[in-house]
Specification:
Elements lengths: L1 H79 L4 H20 L3 H21 L4 H5 L18
Length: 155
């Protein structure tokens, strides 16, 4: 029985040593796993931080662009309603109408050119000081005569 106890003791000691070495090996593997998990956690935290900063920058840029867009919209409305803009559009429309009449009406061209020349001369006199300053700002009726166009009995 003594032999049995020696064999049992030796087996238990060997089993204890093997268990100790396995536990050491498992501990090292667990330490490596924990280090790797910690490394991934750090990488994930860094990536999330970078993405949060990027998202913050994108939001700030979006807000800035939104404000710039609103400012441009307001500026555009202000420029569209700027004094003189509607008058310039009206002048362009009238110029196109006069050009069409000149081309399409045979007797209109010379009469229109004469009236235009008289108006330009009057305008130059107003702004060169020949006509008093007050008259420049007070509109007066034109001295143009209305021409009555009749068929001369061709009807």
């Amino acid at each position: 029985m003594n032999m049995f106890i020696y064999g049992l003791g030796t087996g238990l000691i060997i089993a204890a040593l093997v268990a100790f070495f396995f536990s050491m090996k498992i501990g090292k593997v667990n330490d490596e796993k924990n280090k790797e998990v910690q490394k991934y956690k750090n990488m994930l935290a860094d990536r999330m931080e970078l993405e949060a900063e990027g998202l913050k920058k994108v939001k700030e840029e979006n807000d800035e662009l939104r404000r710039a867009n609103e400012n441009l919209r307001v500026s555009l409305l202000a420029l569209r309603d700027k004094p003189g803009r509607k008058e310039m559009q009206r002048l362009q429309i009238l110029q196109k109408a006069a050009d069409r009449l000149t081309l399409n009406s045979p007797g209109f061209g010379p009469v229109w050119q004469a009236a235009l020349k008289e108006s330009e001369d009057e305008f130059q006199k107003v702004y060169s000081g020949f006509i008093p300053f007050i008259k420049r700002h007070i509109p007066r009726p034109t001295d143009a005569e209305v021409v009555d166009v009749q068929d001369n009995g061709n009807s």
